[in-house]
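Checklist before submission:
- one chain only
- standard amino acids only
- sequence pasted in full

Submission:
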Amino acid sequence: MKLKKIFALLLVVCMTAALLAGCGGNSAGSDTANTTPADTAPASSDTGADTAPASSDASAPADTAPAASGKTQLNVVSDMFSQPNIHDLSPSWFVVRLGLAETLVRFGEDSSYQPWLATSWEVADDNLTWTFHLQEGVKFSNGADMTATKVKESIEYLYEDQDPANGGVGDALTFMTYTSITADDAANTVTIVTTEPVPDMPGVMAYPLFAIIDAEATRGRDMLLEGPIGTGPYVVTSYTDGHDYQLAKNPYYWDGEVPFETVNYVKVAEESSRYNALLDGSADIATHIQASNLPALESAGYAVSNVSGARDGYFHVNFEGPMGNDALRKAVFMAIDDETVCDITTGGSYTAGYTPLAPIFTQWGGADIPDVTAYNPEEAMKILDEAGIKDTDGDGWRELDGQNILLTYVTVTGRQMADIAQAHATLIQAIGVNCEVKVVDSQGEYMTNGTFDMVNSNEMIVPTGDPVNFLSHWYSESGTGYNYARYSNPDFDKAFEALKTEMDVSKRNEYVKQLQQIMVDDSVLLLGGYYNFNICSAPSVTGVVQPPCDFYWITKDIKPAA
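Returned file contents:
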């Protein structure tokens, strides 16, 4: 079957899935939606990530993978989709993921800071003045030179759009605020003076929201339909909301030859359809293939790039409700069989754990923190009994302060968070605590209003290579617009305030260790697991890598196989 017909078929598959499973619209793939609009990550949080169930009816790979041939078009299928709006937190991820725009700094595969549109940077002794030295010879996709003035205008345009006074949501302000930006075109440098120390400033400049665009040219475009004028290897030629992007190579690309003439990116909600698109050769790349299918792909010659630990699937615990009771909260945490939930309920899509930051980040000491609420339902029931949280009326459910307990999990469906919530609820009910799951389209209102006992989030925990923004969820002065748990601990606040402005890396690591220990001891974050995300590719292409930051999907390094 010809490739054009294959993708016509995929269009029908996606439209059918949209009707049956809610594919498309605002729930069609935002990477921050599960953390509310003000969250970083991921985002990113993902109300639209239609993830596979624990089992799949996908066909097994043939013994021999499709042969590579001379290619001019790259075909990608993904469960994720968002509008190409660089000034909106989650859509900005897609502007970078699709190779439309680039940032001053980028993350390496080890999450280190690496040059991109900037060659180097330094901070002055005041810890406020950052100077970025720019690449020479960079052009935007309209042929205009990327000058220091253009970079300055790009950042200013972002803050103009993000300004709450202009109707913006202020996401950029959570990363960094500045007193001035100056451009020196002769020296090819941009200097940013921040209002307070920003230790992870290079990581802030690596975040997609800060991708550099030609602001003057972009102002006259319909950014939602055409995307911004960026410096990436590809440009948007057409866009169908909730379904596909058609891209073409940027003729002015500055960093080598663009490998493909065109790119076809299609949203396909069903994992089995993405899997089979790889097998039949209609797709070169597929995102988020079910864990149980990965070994078969690898054995058949397909490349699998898999990352775990950079994204948490977790639940905020509301300290202003019944879960504010220390005994109840500890018992609920001890009722959860993390290994079974991750391995069986999610089919291996998550890795079990209990520390807020995965132990793979060895600098933050997760492996040294004892699990004080390890799975032990018998001990959980003993704790409840000793605290007087018992069933006194014989209805089978325990009471707190004379009132029946009914805990409410608020969750969206993305990244199997509803499945995890339901598994948790069943395990919590097994210790005599009544619990129900409430599946919603968006949990932002519930978070802000506090109308939950547990509410899901699915978030990149180190969006700038540093966890300070993630940890601010439990800082008491963040307010209910960010501290959704309504949690307050003076020891946590003291350590967090020190972390915010500390520039020494070793000292920062020690503060993060302290904060993790406090969070585990106080049972403030109910971890569903560390999300395992992957990109799989056919032998038709090379250079496909799933980065820990999840920002770079379509790059200049993805090329037709020889």
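Reviewer check: DSSP finds 17 helices and 21 strands in the chain.
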